[in-house]
Amino acid sequence: MKTTAIVLAAGQGKRMGSDVAKQFLLLDEKPVLYYSLKNFEESSVDEIILVTGEDMREYCKEHIVEKYHFKKVKKIVTGGKERYHSVACGLFATDTDCDYVFIHDGARPFATSSIIERGMEAVQKYKACVIGMPVKDTIKISDADGFGVSTPKRSQVWMIQTPQIFEFQLIKDAYEKLLQNEEQLIKDGIAVTDDAMVAELFTDQKVKFVEGSYQNIKLTTPEDLEIAQLFLRQEKVSTK
Length: 240
Hints:
By secondary structure, this protein is an alpha/beta fold. The protein has helices at 32-41, 57-66, 83-93, 113-126, 168-180, 182-187, 195-202, 222-238, and strands at 3-9, 26-27, 30-31, 47-52, 73-78, 100-105, 128-134, 141-142, 148-150, 158-167, 208-211. Strands 5-4-1-6-10-7-11 form a seven-stranded mixed beta sheet, with helices on both faces. The protein has a two-stranded antiparallel ribbon with strand order 2-3. It has a two-stranded antiparallel sheet with strand order 8-9. It is globular, with a radius of gyration of 18 Å. The N and C termini lie far apart (36 Å).
């Protein structure tokens, strides 16, 4: 069985309010991306494909992959305009003998080895899985004018995280169909926000939810960076 992790680091992160893309901001003196790569480097995943901007490929190679000795990073490829374009670039760069693929946001530094292994176990059984957690708050659905119309059962509403894990050929075929139908989706106002959505749109395969962690946050705003610093401090205390 061969497994590949596609780690996405091509986003601009405009909501972070920084000139530096969020995946390259320093978290305890190391780039955020370092932690995402480290988690997969230390897991049972066989290899890593890093997807980044054309202007950051050499930086990633020299200042992250080589500096921190990430041996499993086999390729650094250029991403695209939207997240799903970058995922497609990673999938098309994946070797055809891959069995399962993990797709992970480089700005999500707390996907621990236990999360990765739960995903590994689940994908072999269910073929398509996403890491996530049940929501803590009550969720309301609004109409176009901002008035509440329904309240879904909290026990059935999940916050979806990454990694998202699939049989390789299943998700690659789905992404090929997505790109073929991209223009129509844009016309219909359908925004593709994660990989599970691609599987839902273009395959008949159900996607299984697998428990992650409430700490497995994506760093999006300055507040998230402060929370991440707190998580790291707690981790250091617990390992002393």
